[in-house]
Design a protein that fits this description.
By secondary structure, this protein is mainly beta. The protein folds into 2 domains: 32-263, Oxidoreductase, molybdopterin-binding domain (Sulfite Oxidase, Chain A, domain 2, Alpha-Beta Complex); 270-380, Immunoglobulin-like. Helix content is 6%, strand content 34%. It is built from 4 helices and 26 strands. The protein has helices at 6-12, 93-97, 142-149, 186-189; strands at 35-38, 43-45, 63-64, 78-83, 89-92, 102-105, 108-109, 132-133, 136-141, 157-166, 178-185, 194-200, 203-204, 214-217, 229-235, 249-252, 260-263, 270-275, 281-282, 288-295, 301-307, 315-316, 318-319, 329-335, 341-351, 376-380. The protein has a 5-stranded mixed sheet. Strands 6, 9, 12, 13 and 14 form a 5-stranded antiparallel sheet that branches. A hairpin with a 5-residue loop joins strand 4 and strand 5. The radius of gyration is 21 Å and the shape is globular. It starts with 5 loop residues before the first helix and ends with a strand. The structure holds ligand MTE and molybdenum atom.
């Protein structure tokens, strides 16, 4: 018999036995109930129960890291803003923290969230629904720094570069060791939903969430929210970094033109049923509250609907609060099942621009932006 490798063992071992966070920069073991998707680098998924909190507690926020967590000395920390700018900046952490600050909730969702639902199975971390969270961030607008650095005429992209580096050896392999980096078009970089955060839920960022400084890009999938931010480079042409060409890209079909490869950017609308969970037995004739959260990208959530017949008929869910832009909204839908048998519950979200979740998976999205309808089956008895 072939002996399992250390990696295989760790992947198959319950979280409580995995000692790897002791080797990483993380000071605490992951919160009980977090789902270990990979131990090196650390990748953790939030359990369904965590959809109950509107504000995601820091220890419940999913972790998605491509490389090992870098150890950064906050006293030696420098943020550089350079490239196609009139005024190159070099700032200490205190310089950044002394800029005008804002505190706002912003949802973060990994572009691969829901990948486990793809058939046939694909490569990549097998996230179920929980590579998402809605914490509160404190930081300064990226625009505040750009105003000081003054992009030159012809500036196109703002490249955010992390302090973490590594080589990806699986195809498509990186050209040796590279830092994690992503760009935003200048127009998006100037928006008020794009912040450089030093605090999450009122406390310092934790090592795995980007200590001491990270970007949070409201409305876009998580890969744009660069952690351990170190350099900001303004460019005069579109950036073609690995994590927006070889990785985190999909196909667009402009009308009348050939398919093009484009970076994954905006979050697509999604509703998740947190209660009841799949395969629950529910009582005939007894009121049941179906509940969950829903979110969208640059347009706020307009509507959540629930179906109790696998998607044939739909009824509007109730919001627990008015949907806030760039955040999730909690919703409920009350139902008294009257007939015994299996029932497929489905929830779907529509945003204010009219984008709605579809029943079928769009293959052009490759392994990203997964928001087709996923039924939750319950048994009425
Ligand atoms: N420097 C750096 N930033 C990064 C990543 C990374 O690996 N390195 N992962 C990105 C991805 S794909 C996601 S989904 C989010 C996850 O942020 P979190 O781990 O704080 O939840 O961080 C993004 N920022
Ligand atoms: Mo991600």
């Amino acid at each position: 018999m072939k002996h399992p490798t250390r990696r295989e063992l760790l992947q198959a071992t319950p979280l409580v036995l995995a000692p790897n966070w002791l080797l990483a920069a993380e000071s605490k073991p992951p919160f009980p109930g977090m789902i270990l998707r990979q131990s090196e680098p650390l990748n953790l998924e939030m359990p369904l129960a965590a959809f109950d909190d509107w504000t995601t507690p820091t220890e419940r926020l999913y972790v998605r890291s491509h490389f090992a967590t870098p150890k950064i000395d906050p006293k030696a920390f420098k943020l550089v803003v350079e490239g196609h700018v009139e005024n190159k900046l070099e700032l200490s952490l205190d310089d950044v923290k002394n800029l005008e600050s804002a505190t706002k909730p912003l949802l973060l969702e990994c572009a691969g969230n829901g990948r486990v639902f793809l058939t046939p199975a694909v490569r990549g971390l097998q996230w179920a629904n929980g590579a998402v969270g809605n914490p509160e961030w404190t930081g300064t607008l990226l625009n505040t720094l750009l105003e000081r650095a003054r992009p030159k005429a012809g500036a196109v992209d703002v490249v955010l570069v992390g302090a973490d580096t590594g080589a990806i050896t699986a195809d498509p392999a990186t050209p040796g060791s590279i830092p994690f980096s992503r760009s935003l078009p200048l127009a998006k970089a100037k928006k008020p939903e794009v912040i450089l955060a030093w605090s999450i839920n009122g406390e310092d960022l934790t090592p795995s969430h980007g200590f001491p400084l990270r970007a949070v890009v409201g409305g876009w999938y998580g890969m744009a929210s660069v952690k351990w931010l170190r350099r900001i480079i303004v460019t005069d042409r579109p950036y073609q970094g690995y994590f927006q060409t070889m990785d985190y890209s999909f196909f667009k079909r402009p009308t009348g033109a050939n398919p093009e490869t484009v970076p994954v950017t905006e979050i697509q609308p999604k509703a998740v049923i947190a209660h009841p969970i799949s395969n629950t037995v529910v009582a005939v004739g007894k009121a049941l509250r179906i509940s969950g959260t829903a979110w969208a990208g640059e347009s706020p959530v307009a509507k959540v609907e629930v179906s109790r017949d696998g998607g044939t008929s739909w009824s509007a869910a109730k919001f627990a609060e008015k949907p806030k832009p760039f955040c999730w909204v909690k919703w409920t839908s009350d139902w008294t099942p009257m007939e015994p048998g299996p029932v497929k519950l489905v929830a779907r979200c529509t945003d204010e621009a009219g984008a709605i979740q579809s029943e079928k998976r769009d293959a052009d999205r490759r392994t990203y932006a997964i928001n087709h309808l996923i039924p939750v089956e319950v048994i009425v008895r």
